Amino acid sequence: MAGRPTLEQVAERAGVSRATVSRVVNGSPTVAPTIKEAVERAIAELGYVPNQAARSLVTQRTDSIALVLSESATRVFSDEAVLPGIVRGVSQELDAADKQLVLMLAGSMASHDRIERYAMSRHVDGVIIASMHGADPLPNSLHRMGIPVLCGGRPLGRSPVPYVEVDNVGGARLAVRHLVQSGRSRIATIGGPQDMVAGIDRLNGYREELRGSSLRSIVAIGDFTRESGAAAMRQLLEDDPQLDAVFVASDLMALGALNALQAAGRRVPDDVALVGFDDIEAARYADPALTTIRQPIVGQGRELARQLLRLAGGEEIAHSVVLPTELVTRASA
Amino acid sequence: MAGRPTLEQVAERAGVSRATVSRVVNGSPTVAPTIKEAVERAIAELGYVPNQAARSLVTQRTDSIALVLSESATRVFSDEAVLPGIVRGVSQELDAADKQLVLMLAGSMASHDRIERYAMSRHVDGVIIASMHGADPLPNSLHRMGIPVLCGGRPLGRSPVPYVEVDNVGGARLAVRHLVQSGRSRIATIGGPQDMVAGIDRLNGYREELRGSSLRSIVAIGDFTRESGAAAMRQLLEDDPQLDAVFVASDLMALGALNALQAAGRRVPDDVALVGFDDIEAARYADPALTTIRQPIVGQGRELARQLLRLAGGEEIAHSVVLPTELVTRASA
DNA sequence: CTGAAAGCGCTTACAG
DNA sequence: CTGAAAGCGCTTACAG
User: Mind listing the UniProt keywords for this protein, alphabetically (chains A, B) (predicted)?
Assistant: First the structure.
């Protein structure tokens, strides 16, 4: 088959110059209809598809963007329920814009280097970094190199890098307010890891909302896994056997907490009301079904893609976009 | 900053030709140590990173491969538990080989076109297609175009495209054998969708194993979702109220079936033994914990990547690789 | 509206 | 061991 056809061959077949073929391919309006037709026929007959590398070399664009997920994050099962949704949202929006999605799982510091080199090699027009632990230096260093970069979730520490996040603080406040309003008076919380912004903010929301009431805070910390939720719940029961409600910073931890409560002979919601966060599928199937805070997961992915595309296109974008969360009332509270 | 530095600038700074810089960058052994050092210094000082597009244009390689997931598949929650594992496995192996992963969610037939064009534009060195429904024409058409392509899961219908799959038939037989050996005599099954190879093969395995015994088959079909598992279970109880065991073709459907059984007042495993397939996280936390067939998910991803890399490198590879499954015995059977 | 020509940033025979 | 030169397949001012 002598390799795949080139512009040159299409031009020859259509009896025009390469420039003209290029114009047709790129939809330039200044091509005579008859010529356009001839070129299109030649393209179809030859099955011509433009070589992206050649195009990128001259346009300096690749029409693809990288989505970086931290590998350690994908280990947390809670994230496993969230990250696929983000990937799907990003993918949908990118498809619509005819851009490609390059997925990079950042395992270690070593892979940070790989990612930097990759972005620097101009293989992508921009980078979305989702799901960070701690104060990851990657967003800032990419930003410093002049690469369009956007974070999913507010970066810890001061950072000039724009981000899209869900309203963790507001969601937590919603949950606690619901518990207060339903007459609970000893409201504990199981917080997430304090090196992740979702963990930090949901705990802050809890504290902020309690501050408005006369209730005192009762806190245990987990790591977003089911087991850690169960362990934290046992701890809380020891710390305050009289507690009558718990706001748990993730549904998965809430499911663990639910098991621990039932094992301790507490009825949910009669003795202890329980509110989770995330609204994962399993929340609906828990017994009792879990009241929780829903966050727009696919929506966050879409918004990330839209913002990055604008940024890569040279537009000014808001430094932060915060997506609303909502209370989903079920049986557990 | 006048754009990012080029080979040319490195050459000038190091006082050598572009050819020499290129040799150093690509690790050619025929460069004098002193020169090599000078070049490396210049590279470091300038922060030079090769432009991939330029490189690809001449080498005809991109060092990246595409992973295609069907979007409809990601809608099935059962797959949500499986696909991230495959992505992770592929990513691990590709990272080790310093290749990039381009993720494409194939939503519709329209996106099939996009994927073909993308592969044809030589933006990737090969394509892995995971998770197909029906007899998807994509693998064959890519193959016909001369693009290295590999399927996760055996393609339906005759196809020259090589594949990597888990032993669905063998796993199902293992499950049924376990039920037979534990003395069950009315063993039903809930099959998966019959347009997916996992659905078809697991049902075949059930039938094959029963054929060896004197037991008759009792069959209902679901679509791999939890709800469909519950519905199918209700159907089975109606069809044969005396059944004492069920092999369910996915854990998620098995969880639905478990609910339905308990709602119908049957004790598991006392009245009815239950075996699932997949070994997803939730199987371990069911009550009773679910006996199931474990498949190597990340392992399948890794094997896919390894095989595709070989294929793209021009090696001959086996037309099929079948990875073993195993029985994980817990409380439900 | 169309074409000739330069150039994007690399790699790789080919000489020397 | 090193360099000059050709060429990978496109796009885009610049003329006409």
Answer: DNA-binding, Transcription, Transcription regulation
Tens of pLDDT, residue by residue over B283-299, are: 998 989 999 999 998 99
Cβ of A103 under 8 Å from any chain B Cβ? yes
Residue A19 (CA) to nucleotide D15 (C1'), in angstroms, measures 14
Domain boundaries, chain B: 7-50, 64-166+298-323, 168-294
**pLDDT tens-digit profile of A97-150?**
888 888 888 766 667 788 888 888 878 899 999 877 777 888 998 998 889 999
* Residue whose pair of structure tokens reads 């799901």 in the numeric block: A131
Q: Do domains B7-50 and B168-294 have the same CATH topology?
A: no
Superfamily of domain A168-294: Response regulator (3.40.50.2300)
Pairing assessment for the beta strands A187-191 and A100-106 based on DSSP bridges: unpaired
C-alpha to C-alpha distance for B89 and B84, rounded to whole angstroms? 9
- Strand A320-323's sheet: what is its strand order? A320-323, A163-166, A149-152, A127-130, A64-70, A100-106, B100-106, B64-70, B126-130, B149-152, B163-166, B320-323
Q: Sort out which chain B residues have CB atoms less than 8 A from A111's CB and list them.
A: 95
B11: the nucleotide nearest its CA (via C1') is D3
